[in-house]
Amino acid sequence: MLISVDAILQSFNKSLWIKRGITLLFGLIIWNLPIPWDLSEEAWQLFVIFISAILSVLIGGTSIFTASIIALVLVVLFRVLTPEKAFSGFSEGFILLILSAFLVAKGVIKSGLGSRIAFLLIGRFGHSTLRLSYCLVITDTLLGPAIPSNTARSGIEYPITHALALDTGSEPGKESRKNTGAFLCMSVIAGQTISSALWLTGMASNPIGAAMAADFGVNNTFGSWLVVASLPCLVGLILLPYMLYRLFPPNRKYTPEAPPRAKEKLKEMGPMSSKEWIMALTFVGMIIFWILSPRLDLNLAIIAFAGLAVLLLSGVYNIKDIRSGTGDALETYVWFAILYMMSAALNEMGFMKTLGI
User: Residues 49, 342: contact at Cβ < 8 Å?
Assistant: First the structure.
């Protein structure tokens, strides 16, 4: 069966290909410029591929997964790096830590433990809008070390926040959103930026930053990161909801209906299941071993994979879950592995030092 020209044109996303064309044109122009600062040809070519991949993502020409795959192919095809060097990022321990932590995070979500923590806090303390915001921020902070993704944590918190907003008379797109909804959403969004910085595993880019710092002689463990980040982050988490409450005040100050609603949800969930207990104990155990890892000489990624093994063996998480719900984990793993490989190679080639001067 022949495919019509109209069908081809309809499937052709003009805006998308314009963005890709801009990226290609940008890369070709920079590629053919005179090489500055006495850099090697390989260093300049790697920089062009690196910056073009980032540009493509920023302007929406490709996804981070597609951009990283294309960058990997180009650095090998143009002999900028050897295949061994190009693939080296996939075996870095901190990159595998990101992957394993993403997989463990699925267990927190699937078991319902994250939602239960939120409902317990709201049921006990959520009598006012300000207290509700603290409950949501605390929930995000507690989930931070096990879920290294704002998006994944939002998957737990957004439905709860949305339901709370509706229950208190806030609806999106209407003036009533200022009752509680706008303030609560802003609190969660702003709180995530701080809780992500508190834990080494709170955000996918944190282990990358720690590895880059190690190249300059600054070594961070899970415990040392937490100690250093705790003062500014905890102060920020304490002050943030109150500051937003003053600068972005909700119309409704009190939410007496929130605790009964949370208790109703907890009643629907029933008592903690065996899977939730296993998830909670595994979660706590991973944090303890991460903190003790320097003393016990344990690799952080191995601890996370051990936690994942416990979840798989106990049935909290099964192979079907891995097959069906790990797209974001794979995408993040590939992107950071390739991005770190290129940045490390640029540093070895002297590009970073030259740029710093």
Answer: yes
SS (H, E, C) 163-224: HHHHHCCCCCCCHHHHCCHHHHHHHHHHHHHHHHHHCCCCCCHHHHHHHHHHCCCCCCCHHH
Residue listed under structure tokens 């797109």: 173
Same domain, 32 and 167: no
Please tell me the pTM assigned to this model: 0.79
The pLDDT tens digits of the residues spanning 223-247 come to: 999 999 999 999 999 999 999 999 8
Residue 73 in domain: yes
Distance CA(176)–CA(252), nearest Å, equals 10
3-state secondary structure of 77: helix
Tokens of 255: 């939410």
Which residue type is seen at 244?
L
Print burial letters for 13-46: b (CB count within 10 Å at least 16), e (below 16). eeeeeebbeebeebbeebeeeeeeeebeebbbbb
Both 61 and 185 in one domain: the answer is: no
Share of the chain above pLDDT 70, in %: 95
Same domain, 82 and 102: no
Q: Which residues, in sequence order, are CB contacts of 82 under 8 Å at separation 6+? A: 76
Task: State yes or no: pLDDT of 45 exceeds 60.
Answer: yes
Is there a domain that residue 4 lies in? no
pLDDT, mean over the chain: 88
Whether residue 5 is contained in a domain is answered as no
> Radius of gyration (Cα) for the chain, nearest Å?
23
pLDDT at 214: 85
d(CA 49, CA 45): 6
Q: What's the rounded Cα separation, in Å, for the pair 229 and 132?
A: 25
